[in-house]
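Hi support team,

I'm opening this ticket because the web form for multi-chain structure prediction keeps timing out on my end. I have pasted the exact lines I submitted so you can reproduce it. The total is 501 residues across two entries, so I didn't expect it to be a heavy job. Is there a limit I'm missing, or should I split the entries? Thanks in advance, R.K.
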Amino acid sequence: MSHPKTPHVVDARYMQPPEPFVQTLEMLDTLQPGEKMLLLLFREPHPLYRVLRQNGHAFESELQPDGTFEILISR
Amino acid sequence: MQPLLSLDNAPPLAAPWRFFLTAPLFLVLAGLLLAVSGPGVFSSRWLPPTLALVHLLTVGFMLQVMIGALIQALQVVVGVNLRWPLPLAWGVHIALNAGVLLLAAGFLTAAPLPFRAAAALLALGVGGFLLAAAVAVLPLPSTSPTIRGIKLSLAGLAGVAGLGVTLALGLAHGWALPYPQLTDLHAAWGLAAWGGILLAAMAYVVVPMFQLTPGYPARPSWWYPPLLLGLVLLWSLAVALDQLSLARLAQGGLALAGLAFAGVTLRLQRQRRRARVDATSRYWPTGLGAALAALAMLLAAALWPVLAEHPAWTPLFAILLLVGAFIPFIVGMLCKIVPFLAWMHLQRQMQPGQPAPNMNRLLPDLAAQRQMRAWLLALALLLGAALWPQWLTRPAGVMLAVAGGWLEWNLLGAAWRYRLQAAEKP
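Hello R.K., no limit was hit. The queue was backed up. Here is the completed structure from your submission:
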């Protein structure tokens, strides 16, 4: 799946925890420095945010009209 | 990269569990009180056992679980922990439990001392929790409807507790207050501004997460919590100005808003992608059905107040909203998060390579299903008792106590199995 913001996308909207968390970290490991990935979820993943901060990843989240949070994460 | 979900920040298990394990005992107490008091309970909402019963359910069970759940869940749903969770939970738990028992004693004996002690303890317990929650949550930016909802629900809790303490002190000291209007307002702050907003804020996260439904649409989700709080404030203004029609307008608005929320949630649940049905997903549709019926009654009473004069109207409304809707949502959540928390903490204690504990073995689904059948029977008997109190009040009380006791048994079983598995770890 691709997205205008980045070709690297994890659409975790219908995944059970902890799959979104695991798949996001797995995709981050495959990215090159400077690349970004997008996580799609129907909630803000605060436990993931904490790990991202601890590991020095910048991220920004945007709520879409259908209730999807688009979370853009930098490698 | 830190590979695993870090749980080091999660509050200790004992913090929420003390609330979860004592709360069902208040369902048992409420059931026994109903069985002992008999059919008179349904003849007026102002009778001492009726008032005691309502507070055993709302404060003893509902508020207790909601506070325990928030102490645990804030880290996941808004990303912060409360400070000193164990001492906070210990103090709030004692104050809340002693406070609600004294409040029930106050209603039943009409003695001033229990009312005064209950008011002091409940103010201390709820105030302590509110202070800790406000310090943690209010500085956060409202980046999601959930964070905004939780912030506003704290205002709701402050409102219901403030009015409740005022009413209890008023009864203790014989103050001349407009008790009927203030009691309705107290209920509106409790059930709409606190319970309703908190329920929505949590539903925005847990319904899509656990039941794999689409998300709640963003714009209505942002505006639902402030709309409920605004309508309760309008109701408060109406009471202050003694404007009955304005109060009815607020009541009708709250009913419509609640109906819309329940309708949207039902629509989302029809699109769920989770095939396996569990305790939570069984409780939600039943709870939403009862909520729709109760809110339709609230709307009807706002439009035609004469309806509420029927003797069965108020008991039916209260049973549908409390025992039919709020309590099942809470029980469904308990059946999900108690084994989940136990599993999460066991997982943390495991050595690498050890098999993960089985979550379903901690609180078997069959046990939750049987408890739910007991609750459904209690609900049916209670609704019947509102119509035929002479015949069904005592059986309904006994069945409510059985359903509450069954829940306690299931939760204690989960706690026991957790301890056994934790003791087995190398």
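A quick check on our side: Residues 1-6 of chain B have pLDDT under 50 and may be disordered. Let us know if the file doesn't open in your viewer.
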